[in-house]
Design a protein that fits this description.
single chain, about 60 residues, mainly alpha, Helix Hairpins, 3 helices
């Protein structure tokens, strides 16, 4: 996801996406360690998207103060 797409979503949607991506990342790490994951770059993309979501949420919380 692009940062512009994330800024359009509300906080509830972002938290829902964050939870889903964290679960997906956990599953991908297990698959990576067991040798089932073929495309290693997908894990990196998931991590970056999680970081983007957390950044948007942090920025919003600081603006509201």
């Amino acid at each position: 996801m692009d940062i512009k797409e994330l800024k359009v979503k509300n906080d509830e949607e972002l938290r829902k996406d964050l939870t889903a991506l964290q679960e997906q990342g956990r599953e991908m790490r297990f698959k990576l360690n067991s040798g089932e994951l073929k495309n290693h770059s997908e894990l990196s993309k998931v991590k970056k998207t999680i970081a983007r979501i957390l950044t948007v949420l942090t920025q919003r919380s600081k603006q509201s103060k």
